[in-house]
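Notes from the 1:1 (GR / supervisor)

We went over the backlog. Supervisor wanted to see one worked example end to end before approving the batch request, so GR pasted a single chain during the call. The sequence is below; no edits were made to it. Supervisor asked that the structure be written out right there so they could see what the output format looks like.
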Amino acid sequence: MSAATHASSSSAASPSAPGAATVRGRAGIGLIVAVLLVAFNLRLAITSLGALLDQLNDAGVSGATLGVLTSLPVLCFALVGATAMVVTRWIGVDRGLEGALVLLTLGLVLRVLDGTPALLAGTAVATAGIALANVLIPAIVKEHFPDRVGVMTGAYTAILSLGSAVGAATTVPIADAAGSWRVGLGVWALVAVTAAIAWAPYCRRRDPARSTVRGAALWRNPTAWAVTILFGTQSLYAYVMMSWLPSLYADAGFSDAKAGLLLALSIAVGVPFFFLAPSVAGRLRHQGHLVLLLTLLTVAGWAGLWVAPHDGAWVWAVLLGAGGAVFPVTLSFFAMRTTSTADTASLSTMAQSIGYLLAAGGPLLVGILHHSSGGWALPCALLVGLGLVQASAGYLAGRPVKIGRPAS
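Structure output shown during the call:
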């Protein structure tokens, strides 16, 4: 999936500012656990719903409604994520994240109440909370872990991916054991409440956010646009993979179960790469080389699916999973390319709102090309070509500059 500028809502950005020592002193084990608990929730609500679509259909939910349910997350990521700057100006980054967790919890409860309207409304509210958290987490990392941006970005994106896998793998067994899809979905509200409780001690201050980059200046900045395009391309790759990879493998002769296993392999392989890639990026002066390497892995995966989807299936799955580590590297750019928490959140807002809009059209376009051509050659060729765009954006985004400052 955003795809992703706010002077600290909870403190000044400068180490010498009042309260800065307190902020840095708070970056202990409790704060790390709280951030990781939040990250665990950032895809759980989505993959748990996807796992139960067949049961929802059997329960009488229409195909049209299911289509809306699957489209809501990426649309909320784009549209609601764009409001994050307004939220942080009112209540700050730290309190904004707590509000996002409250929205997520309320949505998870609402969607298991009786009726299709509640299912739709609850999904919208839950994904709205996730959308806000998506944007704010990079700013939280910038503020509370200024010297460990790469490590913390890698850790929370790896946990995010783990949460995604847990939702996909365990929701159906939970629903089957309880005899109700509502229990299978509703149980995850307890996980969201746990994250909200864990984060509560860290959201007490209410300093307004101030950005060092004035409004329109960010939108005129080439580095900001490079980060935005990079977020959009990697999100497009991810959503196309999640939407169409099982179908591609099925058309290549694999059973539905084996096709799903190959997708799961891609996700699982990505976890260690998600953890390591931002740390590597933090040690490089120019991160464009790392983006190029990861993009080449992705391109090789789609090229392999183009020419030998069956014989090399396991290899292509591994390459796509490893190449997906462009995602946490892009998230680390939000902090690396800015000078304050406020600016980090602003860049995150811009990149994720526009990037997810770009990504939303990817699965649709691939589906149209597949059905019109009767095969996968044309979609795979498009995805191979997209690598040039991603690598180019990565080189510009990876330059050692701060937005608003000249290149060093």
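Supervisor's comment: Confidence is low (pLDDT under 50) at residues 1-26, 207-211.
Batch request approved.
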